Amino acid sequence: MASQFDQTLKLTSFSHGGGCGCKIAPGVLADILKQSQGFPVPPQLLVGIETADDAAVYLLNDEQALIATTDFFMPIVDDPTDFGRIAATNAISDVYAMGGTPIMALALVGMPIDKLPIDTIGKILAGGEAICAEAGIPIAGGHTIDSVEPIYGLVVMGLVHPSHLKRNANAKVGDQLILGKPLGVGVLSAALKKNALNADGYKAMIDSTTKLNTAGKDLAKLKGVHAMTDVTGFGLLGHAREMARGAHVNVHINLQALPFLPQVETLAAQGFITGASARNWNGYQQDITLDSNINDVQKALLCDPQTSGGLLVACAAEEVDAVMACFHAYGFAEATVIGNIQEGTTGVHVNS
């Protein structure tokens, strides 16, 4: 077993997809949202659905804006405590991606109570509580249902000074693009589900997916940081595309600069790739250009769904050192400059 947790009943056996790989494909989601009738938007709503940002933001007063977000999914690992920790870390990340500080969470719990032991469900919730305690926030309530597949996540609220709010839509031409965490969670999860991930690979995946993106609240205070988001289920290309579309710019990514978690590139070459990677590509390929020598495995890695992935930061060139220092201060040793923002057709270009 890759995990130190040993159980006859595997959590992942209940789920048709795990972690942020469960997301509705971006193309399908776009079609669904097109049917929305819209609603009157109050001036206090600083961020809504218009640029597919990480959270909604509502202005409270001159000094405070409320950040509200939710995220939940099905098991990506079999260890119930780890599942709870990953889901909570992932949900809280949206507040940090907006430049805020989380203040409170509500639990969202759906469990097949006739099939999962109560002790297992308790460990999932305890894992989430442990991460919330690490973030310094209470789980103040929530909602539970009996469901066919195990589902766990959080509603998270936070606060940000309006002048420090960071959106995914304000990147500027000339900005450098910095990624806070290595990629490849989807590949590792695919290998885990097929019992092909060793203990070192599992540890690397857990260490990454349970590391809170707390650097975001301080990165947002840097004047040269113009845009920020976190990389999750739509993969690096999908979230870079959202950044490009929001600012009407061309995001250039250097494939050779991308950091990957240990074993990811080897496992991907062996065929351990999620179905969500292909769905992602099909959903947004019209906005992506790849150098001709980029192969199918590399393309899959670019679209690999990340669960609790890293912050993606667009900042002025003169702010790069300060951004890297902030990441390093919070323990993100593998933060890397992966590209830049250029003029041109709105979308993403990947250089080999």
Q: Cα-atom Rg, whole angstroms?
A: 19 Å
Architecture of the largest domain, according to CATH? Alpha-Beta Complex
Kindly identify the CATH topology of the largest domain. Answer: Phosphoribosyl-aminoimidazole Synthetase, Chain A, domain 2
Helical residues, percent: 25-40%
Strand content: 15-25%
SSE topology string = HEEEHEHEEEHHHEHEHHEHEHEE
Which secondary structure elements does this structure contain, and how are they paired or packed?
Blueprint (H helix, E strand, L loop, with lengths): L25 H9 L10 E3 L8 E4 L5 E9 L6 H18 L3 E11 L6 H18 L3 E8 L4 E10 L15 E4 L5 H9 L5 H11 L6 H4 L5 E6 L4 H13 L2 E5 L9 H6 L5 H10 L3 E3 L5 H8 L7 E5 L4 H10 L6 E7 L4 E5 L1
Parallel strand pairs: 4-5, 9-13, 10-13
Antiparallel strand pairs: 1-2, 2-3, 3-6, 4-6, 7-11, 7-12, 8-11, 9-12
Helix pairs in contact: 2-3, 4-5, 7-9, 9-10
Structural account:
With 352 residues, the protein is an alpha+beta fold. The longest helix has 18 residues, at 80-97. The chain folds into 2 domains: 11-163, 60s Ribosomal Protein L30, Chain: A, CATH 3.30.1330.10; 166-351, PurM-like C-terminal domain (Phosphoribosyl-aminoimidazole Synthetase, Chain A, domain 2, Alpha-Beta Complex), CATH 3.90.650. It has a 7-stranded mixed β-sheet, sandwiched between helices. A 6-stranded mixed β-sheet has the order 1-2-3-6-4-5. The chain contains 11 helices and 13 strands. Strand 1 and strand 2 form a beta hairpin. Helix 9 packs across helix 10 (296-303). Helix content is 33%, strand content 23%.
